[in-house]
Every structure is written in structure tokens, then in C-alpha cells.
Amino acid sequence: MVRDKGCYGAGWKFTVAQVVLENVYKSFSGRKGEKAIDKTEKFGQEVELLALPEALHTTSAQSPEQAVLRRINLTVKDGEFMVLVGPSGCGKSTLLRSIAGLEELTGGNIWVGDRLVNDLPPKERDIAMVFQNYALYPHMTVYDNIAFGLRRMSGGETTENSLPLWAENLLVGMTRSLPKKLKYLTEREKAIDAQVRVVAELLQIEPLLDRLPKQLSGGQRQRVALGRAIARNPQVFLMDEPLSNLDAKLRSETRAQIVKLQRQLGTTTIYVTHDQTEAMTMGDRIAVMNRGQIQQLAHPLELYNRPANRFVAEFIGSPPMNFLPVQFQAPLLITHPQSQFRLTLPDIWQRALQNYDRRPLILGIRPEHLNLSLPAPKNLQVRVDLVEALGNETVISVHLRETSAPSTFQVRIAPDRPVLLGEELWLSIAPDKIHLFDAQTEMAIWPR
Ligand SMILES: Nc1ncnc2c1ncn2[C@@H]1O[C@H](COP(=O)(O)OP(=O)(O)O)[C@@H](O)[C@H]1O
Ligand SMILES: [Mg+2]
């Protein structure tokens, strides 16, 4: 689909497209790294490959033919900001590289807009990718770094009043060493110039255009790298952990900038990160990945409130959710056999749990849903192992008393409540914030 984007002024057409992944499988055969490196060398430049992705440096042992991506089905809507989040090694980069065309699929289909791109080389997929280790061309100015991709783009519409190519080349050559204002610019260079300036304005890097990369800070370099990707006006942006090299403050600033920029441009974006905070704050929707599979696809708060399984429950939220193995007795009682803990669940659970009588369950409760309380069987008796006073809140680590295999919990408490190491406390569980998981499958059970 082609849309005219007002903010870019006349002549700036922004193509936006949905990306559909159908049953995508990927396994690496042969020696680790072989294929990826070949492809990167062959096609790297065509997708504005700014650096070798970290996948090529990973050293973890891997048996051949192991499926790195399994049954990936995902529709990224037109103009959507989709975040792929998951622990290191779960296949995020491989998926992104497959979409870019740097990896061949073992099975399945990838659609960009209405085109099946499986067999298209990266260049023809109309996708721009930004990596963690952005490498700008060190000998080129910021301006030329941004213009580079545009100059390399094939075609170049000749307008009616342009000179023959040989004459243009002659003029360009003769005036090359003159100051910028006296240089002869072809129609194509003029168009490129306009584009570079729009992008520079958008990213607020206009004052930097004449600098070399070495004269920039990390954050500025990353913005230039983004500028290169944006300038090409692709149908889709792919970003692979683009902020990992920045310090915490800059990371959160740049995070906000990227989100704002994406809203302005409306370009379909797939953003990869291992950082759940980044995912929660940036994504329209988030796909949580683990071991090559999508565990859950949902809006940020839905992931937090209704995690589909224990993995998602633990991965989303910081500090992570606490878990306690418990025994269930119909209609509503849960107990922890190694301690005195006995809790009657709210009535809403009765139907969902009717097949779980005398079976084990996993109780999940977030650190913010435990409260300091009084001795009672429905509360947990704990001892304090660690106190982290953060100013606006205090996070304490505790373990359950009188158990052989200690269960540990993290609890968020108000900063004005003094807590001592080794202190004994009783914690109550917010009854409407309880999560339960099947002990075997680790799938969430929902009140019905
Ligand atoms: N070229 C390759 N050859 C073989 N295995 C690879 C290759 N690239 C990545 N892998 C493996 O695939 C898995 C997923 O890697 P990757 O996609 O880089 O994960 P992530 O980006 O989520 O950290 C890892 O186990 C990694 O070692
Ligand atoms: Mg990666």
C-alpha cells in the first residue's frame, strides 16, 4: 500500500506494508556460522547492513539441524510497532535476518505487503535494518553516510530538464572540489539533498551533518544510523537491539525518540530486544519468544495481566513474578505442604480448577502484589535476606520459613517502612492478583 505522508512534504511517498510470517521454520545445517557469513558478505550492503550482527559472534555450542525457529506465525499490521522480546539465543536475530533476506528459511512463507518475498534478495524486499553495532563509514561525513544508501538506490528518476548523463558527470567532476554552494548538483543529488535534510531535521542532527562519525557521541551515532535507514524510505524497518550500546539515560531518551519517530513516519517496524522494559514501553504489541517459538503475542498490559504461561509471567515484569509450588484441594483450597500456608481462593476459580483436585499447581504472585501483614495461615511467613532501598520504593528478597527447600520471593514495599536483614515478616497475597499455572505444562489457568 502506498500512502502520502503529509509531514514529508511533496514528493515524499511513504510506502507502508504489513509483514506476515506463515509457519516459519529455520534450522542451521553444517558448521555454525558458515551460511550466515556467506549471505552477509553477499547481500550485506543491499540491506544497509551496518555491522555484523552479534549472532555471528555467539559461541554457544549447537548441534547441527537444531530448529532455531519453530512454527512462527505472526502478522505485523500496517504501520504497527511490533517488539520481539526474549532471552539471548531464543532466535530473535535469526527471525529478523530471515525477514531481511539474510537467512534462507527452512520452511514457511514471509509476505511483505502483498508480495511473497521468500525468494527475493534483500535488496528487493524494500526493508531497512539497524543493528546494535551500527558501523557508520568512518571516512564519510554524517551527510554522506545518510546519503550513501540513497545514492546507491537503483533507478534515479531523470527529470525533463536534466542534462545528458555525460554532461552532468563532467560538471559534477569539475566542481567537486569547490565549496558546497558552488558545486554542480544533478537533479538526483538535489533530491537526495532534500531527503537528507528532512531526515536530519526529523532526528535533530542537522548541526552534525558535516562531522565525521568519530566526532559524535554514541547516541548521536545511533541517530545517524537510524537516519540512514529512514532516508531510504523503506516499507519496513527492522531493528535489532539498536540501543544496547548506549548508557541507561541515553537509552531511555533514544527509546522515546524512536517511538515518536515511528509514529510520525507510520512505517511498519519490527524491533528486537532482550529487555522487557524496552518491550513494554515501545511496542504496540509484543511477541514474547523463547527457544525459537512465540510464547504469546499481546498488548503490553495484557502480557503483564494475563501471561499465557509461566515463561511469559516470569519474563515480563521487573522484579519478576514469584512462584510457589502448591497443592490444590477442591473446591478452592491451596496449601504449601512444607509450611503452614493455607489459602482459600476467590470463588471465581472454582470452575477452572474443578479437574485439579489433589493435584499440584504453581502459584504466581508479583512482587507488587505481596503486602506486609500479620501472622495468619493465609499469609506467608518469611525471613529477610536482602534489602534494596531504591528511594521511591524498597525491594526486599525473602525466603519462606520452615521449609527444607527454600522458596524465595521478591517483594515491593513502601520506602518508609524500615526492614532489617534477618527480620521475620508475614506477607499477605492480594487475592485478585493471583496467577495459577498447571504444574506439568506450565500453562496459565484462568478463572472462568
Ligand atoms: N549461523 C548460524 N549457524 C548456526 N547456529 C546459529 C547461527 N546463527 C545463530 N545460531 C544459533 O541460533 C540460535 C538463535 O540465535 P539468535 O537468533 O542470534 O538469537 P537472539 O538474537 O535471540 O539472541 C542460537 O542458539 C544461536 O547460537
Ligand atoms: Mg540477537
UniProtKB/TrEMBL annotation:
What SUPFAM superfamilies does UniProt report for this protein, alphabetically?
MOP-like, P-loop containing nucleoside triphosphate hydrolases
Ranges of residues in domain ABC transporter: 47-316
State one Pfam family annotation.
Answer: OB_MalK
Write the record's keywords in alphabetical order, separated by commas.
ATP-binding, Nucleotide-binding, Transport
Q: Does the keyword ATP-binding apply?
A: yes
Asked if the record carries the keyword Transport, the reply is yes
Q: Which GO terms describe its biological process?
A: carbohydrate transport
GO terms for MF:
ABC-type transporter activity; ATP binding; ATP hydrolysis activity
Top-rank lineage group of the source organism: Bacteria
Q: Which GO terms describe its cellular component?
A: ATP-binding cassette (ABC) transporter complex, substrate-binding subunit-containing
Protein name (database record): ATP-binding cassette domain-containing protein
